[in-house]
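Re: [help] complex structure
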Amino acid sequence: MLLSLRKVTKYFPVQRGLLGRPTAFVKAVDTVSLEVGAGQIVGIVGESGCGKSTLGRCAVGLLEPTSGEVWWDDLEIKGLTVHQKRVHQRKFQVVFQNPYASLNPRQKIKDILLEPLEVHNLLKPSQRLEFVKGLLTQLGLTEEDLTKFPHEFSGGQRQRIGLARAMTCQPELIVLDEPVSSLDVSVQASVLNLLSHLNQENGVAYLFISHDLQVVGYLSQRLLVMYLGSVVESGKTEEVLGHPRHPYTKVLLTASRGRGSLMEGEPPNPAQTPSGCPFHTRCAYAEDRCRWEKQQLLGGENFWEVACWKWDRL
Amino acid sequence: MTELLCVRNLKVSLKAPSTSREGWVLRGMNLTVLAGERVALVGESGCGKSVTALSILRLLPRPPMEISSGQIEFKGRDFGNLTPEQWREIRGREIGMVFQEPVSSLNPVMSVGEQIAETLRNHSELSAGEIRARTLSLLARVGLPGPTRLRSQYPHQLSGGMCQRVMIAMAVACGPSLLIADEPTTALDVTVQTQILDLLFRMTEEQRLAILLITHNLNIVRGHADRVVILYLGLVVEEGVPDEIFDHPQHPYTEGLLAALPEVSRKGRTLYNIPGVVPSPFEAITGCAFADRCPKVEKKCRQSMPPLIETRKGHQVRCFYPSGR
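Output below.
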């Protein structure tokens, strides 16, 4: 497996006691496991605050999980030395949501794109510029763009530059954190086409994070639905969206098509997660058991999983 | 139904701050809203949807923008030369407005109840007790739990969805006949978005309120509007009932937008990509504004601007070669 997360949990302290010990936590990610194989596209979907970005950051080593393991190419990253980690980091890149904030405004595009090559000491210095030019053309930008600054580009173009920066290291996996959320429909389509092209041509795998079920569903082969830090349903995309089993997935699916809401209320504060099933406060089918006891992910054939007491009775 | 709002040939110019270049944000916008009608104004960023809303309420940032010509009529009354006092009467009382960012649109140092009460106080003769009662009933009507406690809370204590409900309560407090909602759900979570839209439309039914919903999200329009108006570069390019527009789009731009939507059902297929980019407002345009990006462009399109023609009852399109049905 290219990337595998095993029971990853990430808590953030939100309150500290007298001696500086944390006394209250936000459970951003709670015992989540997932695997991404070479060339695969795995999608994570959920509302804001469900921990999807935190999970993405744990996956590329930007955050260290509170507990659980992150494995890159069958190596656990906690056990790696700084040098080893840097060598492997090259293969795991990330593209962030906001293309306005993730590029250094004072660097020319050329410097933005050459820096990763210098850091990882890839290619001969004389070959680097040629390589970067080739990459830019592949991503629908031109050579003239190399001498420009980020502010000279539109949102869609900046997102391409962010993607180009991630691609310079010839990664095996890119974590895409809401890569198209800030873009207009027509621009969004071109970035999505580019992503699927790169996946087919270069065989790069994605961990695709978004709040938009239609976008995630369009691109990914496997899908994880997260709610308040936990995975509530996962499986093959067609399976999950064709026969959603968890009530939350059903709600997301109707909402993403712009139909009426099936659900009252808003996501609870992640610092005070409800007892039992985290979704019971908003679930139309909740019964007593859901309030006290949390169902673990149950597996079935075709690798789907669902965390609901009543999934087979809905 | 009677005509409530009528915008005729509205042109808004934009001056670049450093140079003296002049551009156009709206290039002859026409829009009517009937009493009680739900109209959705759809377009990508930079097409002039928000500017239309701001021009109606004379809230344009001036400079750099200026209404250079055109007419706005509301209930048969010309909005051309009103005094600031008359404007104050109209904003909030006759026309309510809901903005995109609910958290930043509310005053952070004023309690939620006080903000609603202020609107009521400015526009009515109610006594303090009546205002308090109205505030509580408004909070309850927009579906906020525990109005008595909520009244004294501040915006930072509420979630985005709750703040948007407060904004809606303020906008409908004085019983306006038109509500302008500028991307009211864009900053909210998917599951909350539908709740807010449902609330807005329940309000329109209860109060016989017309709504001008401005959005870039085509998906939410379908179930939530009586009429859809598609904008491109400051001009209406297509207009009609949602089912017509979605099932039989006639303008190449609308067709392109719909084909570009990522949907699960389009999995594995390349999405349609409208070539090129939206031209800048400073570009001089003769002929059709969409010509450079249009797959069906002909010589005629570059020479003169196509008029908005009715191809079917209630379905208008600005194209010389509208798609057949």
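Chain A touches chain B at residues 47-48, 154, 184-186, 188-190, 192-193, 196, 211-215, 217-219, 237-238, 241, 251-252, 254-261, 263-264, 266-267 (CB under 8 Å).
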